[in-house]
Design brief:
The protein is mostly helical. About 50% of the residues lie in helices and about 5% in strands. InterPro entries: 4Fe4S_Fe-S-bd, 4Fe4S_Fe_S_CS, Cys_rich_dom, HdrC_iron-sulfur_subunit, Helical_ferredxn, NarG-like_domain, NarG-like_sf.
């Protein structure tokens, strides 16, 4: 038969109906064999999924699921890939691969539905049920285009792995999987090109890549009969690869596609919230925290399989950056290894056999104690993970077991003991809790029961001489703005935030119960706190203890007062000399999304805001890692109470970043940041000032406090 070009085929087929015969050029016996092989592949896939789900279900119930919220997260985070940000190359590659795979999966499913319906209705292959006409035209163009996206995404990932770029885990199996996917995609286009030639497809240009492939074969001398023979052979090769991929998927790292979708749907989205432990559960099991894999929740066990070991969490971890033994990625992968070897709750995992069981306990064994205590619970790992895995949540659960087992020693254990004994980690008497307010005439709730705002001072500002300046500045501003406020004074106790994140859940619940009772007695409704850790605990932890309040950070209230003109007009010259940079606290910016209010306060201080804008306004220098992508000062998660030298602290990389900004002043909005950044900056650049935004605003609007130089307050009583 003479060679015929695709253009000639198009003209010859112009009078044919626009359609595609399903299983064209595939004889009946081959169809039957295909269905047998497909059933085996799907069976292997189903068993692999069942095996993993059986493991997940050995964990503790994860709690009720809000199906409306879960559906919203599936659409936003899974289908629209909403969590893939940063790493432009890798993010683009994943979006291309996922979208291409998803559309091709839908296309393959539609073809299967067409074939099944045609068989049920007794329709001949030449008369499809719906795979024809305009639908067919759109189908061909869409699947052909997204197939290209799929191949480009796979190729990008393969190149990245072969170049050794990125911090993801690199294994031969991962490279093999990418090669397999690329071969499946390429052979799909080859089969399509041969089909176009053999079937004289109407409008072959609807499959542009297939049309180009057909043109190449025709140019090479492949005629219609030869195309039919090649099509049949390559169709089987393509089908075998695709079915092999389906069978292999649950036994490879690609299980993350299913586990990740489940995890994104049912996970807890609030970074500042930890899973509570009921006292009834403790009494029943005699256990606090996680000792064995089955002590994790089902959602957490599913999230272990969701982890693809991409390393984003490790790249964002301040402890890893500081050289601590903590890698969030490795924590998860070590637990995955245990699950694959030991199983969960006595259920066999059926692992690959490559892992070796160390026989060590999870907390302090598989995951070392120093690794667990290195975490600042900044939430960066959970926030950056595209699949919503939270190494931080697993770490805090393992810490709970260590605390229950009496494994914590030294200064952090002493801080917990002091908190339990006298209500604050400094170990100072409750009666001295108002000493910071000497000479300020600060009203107590018992003396001003009609207050509108309760100022929660917190332990640091109550007892630390440097942090006391924050509280004094806040009070001066509230008084100047004529805000009707009050404080609890000696009735206030530690929120228990550090205790909870260190793992002492019982101490936290004890403190929360006492504080909720006190706040209820005084009918607290709106609470302002300058400490993000107190804000987070009152906002996100206390509802679990029955305390529901409107809780705002002092930057939010101060920015309101500035915007409403309730503070004295600021001078046209700034209150500080030189430029300012701002450090976002993790528990303010990342956990609670408060980023712009502190900047609004600083803009006013620097002469950039409102009617006080000045042509000579000082610049506010943004640090490279800012807002939600901030980096931890090193004081969270109880690390505040560890005796690390400034050069050994988790936040030393952040200090270098701050000093490198060249600013004269670094503004903070957290007492922990004030202390940790202050110590680090003092060692690196003693001339740089570290000030809370309330101090800067008070000095700009009210001037230095009487009897104090440069904003320094008198010693506390």
């Amino acid at each position: 038969m003479p060679s015929v070009s695709p253009a000639e085929l198009m003209l010859a087929a112009a009078s044919q109906p626009l359609m595609r015969e399903v299983f064209g050029n595939i004889p009946g016996w081959a169809k039957g064999l295909f269905y047998v092989v497909a059933a085996v592949a799907v069976g292997a896939w189903a068993y692999g999924i069942y095996r993993r789900v059986r493991l997940w279900r050995q964990g503790k119930p994860s709690g009720g699921v809000n199906y409306a919220a879960a559906l919203k997260r599936v659409v936003r985070d899974v289908l629209l890939q909403g969590r893939f940000r940063g790493r432009p190359f890798a993010s683009l590659a994943h979006v291309l691969l996922f979208s291409g795979f998803f559309v091709l999966l839908i296309g393959t499913t539609l073809v299967a539905i067409e074939h099944i319906l045609a068989d049920l209705l007794g329709r001949p292959a030449s008369d499809p049920v719906f795979h024809k006409g305009l639908y067919y035209a759109v189908y061909e163009l869409v699947t052909d285009s997204f197939g290209v996206a799929f191949l480009v995404g796979c190729t990008m990932f393969l190149v990245r792995r072969l170049r050794g770029a990125g911090s993801f885990a690199k294994t031969p199996a991962d490279v093999g999987m990418l090669v397999l996917l690329i071969v499946i995609g390429v052979t799909g286009y080859v089969v399509e090109g041969l089909r176009i030639i053999h079937a004289a497809t109407p409008l072959p240009g609807l499959s542009p890549v297939g049309y180009v492939t057909a043109s190449l074969f025709t140019a090479a001398g492949v005629d219609q009969a030869g195309a039919g023979r090649l099509h049949f052979a390559l169709w089987w090769f393509h089908a075998a690869l695709a079915l092999g991929f389906i069978a292999w998927m649950p036994y490879s790292r690609l299980i993350h596609s299913l586990a990740g979708a489940i995890n994104l749907a049912i996970r807890n989205e609030r970074l500042g919230t930890l899973r509570p432990i009921s006292m009834a559960e403790v009494e029943e099991t005699g256990l606090i925290g996680v000792a064995k894999l089955e002590d994790f929740t089902r959602q957490q066990l599913a999230s272990l399989d969701a982890c693809v070991s991409c390393g984003r969490c490790q790249d964002m971890c301040p402890a890893f950056e500081a050289g601590k033994p903590l890698s969030p990625r490795n924590v998860v992968q070590e637990l995955v290894g245990v699950m694959n070897v030991r199983g969960v709750g006595g259920q066999s995992a059926g692992g690959s056999g490559q892992e070796k069981d160390s026989g060590l306990p999870l907390a302090g064994g598989v995951i070392g104690e120093e690794t667990l205590w290195s975490c600042t619970t900044c939430g960066a790992c959970a926030d950056v993970c595209p699949l919503g895995v939270s190494p931080m949540g697993m770490i805090t659960d393992l810490r709970r077991f260590l605390i229950g087992d009496g494994a914590l020693r030294g200064s952090p254990a002493t801080a917990l003991q002091k908190t339990d004994r006298v209500g604050n980690p400094f170990g100072l008497p409750q009666k001295e809790r108002l000493a910071w307010a000497a000479g300020l005439d600060v009203p107590l709730v018992k003396d001003n029961p009609e207050y509108e705002v309760l100022y929660w001072v917190g332990c640091a500002a109550a007892y630390d001489r440097r942090a006391q300046k924050i509280a004094r500045s806040v009070v001066r501003l509230l008084q100047a703005a004529d805000v009707n406020f009050a404080v609890l004074g000696p009735e206030e106790r530690c929120t228990g935030e550090s205790a909870r994140r260190m793992g002492d859940e019982l101490l936290f619940q004890q403190l929360a119960e006492q504080n909720v009772a006190t706040l209820g007695e005084h009918r607290a409704k709106r609470i302002v706190a300058h400490c993000p850790h107190c804000v987070n605990s009152l906002r996100n932890d206390y509802p679990q203890a029955g305390g529901e309040y409107e809780v705002v950070h002092h930057s939010q209230l101060l920015s309101e007062l500035v915007a409403d003109g309730k503070l004295p007009a600021m001078p046209t010259t700034t209150a500080v000399g030189g430029s300012i940079t701002y450090h976002d606290p993790c528990y303010l910016a990342r956990a609670n999304g408060i980023t712009e209010e502190p900047r609004a306060v600083l803009a006013a201080v620097a002469g950039q805001g409102g009617g006080n804008a000045d042509a000579g306004a000082l610049p506010i220098i943004e640090l490279p890692r800012n807002r939600r992508e901030t980096s931890c000062c090193g004081g969270g998660g109880g690390r505040m109470w560890f005796d690390d030298a400034p050069s050994q602290r988790v936040g030393r990389g952040r200090v270098e970043e701050i000093v490198g900004s060249g600013a004269a002043t670094v503004a903070v909005s957290c007492p922990f940041c004030l202390m940790m950044v202050g110590d680090g900056v003092a060692a690196e650049k003693p001339t740089m000032q570290v000030r809370d935004i309330a101090e800067l605003l008070a000095e700009a609007t009210l001037g230095p406090e009487s009897g104090a130089a440069n904003g320094n307050t008198p010693p506390s009583a």
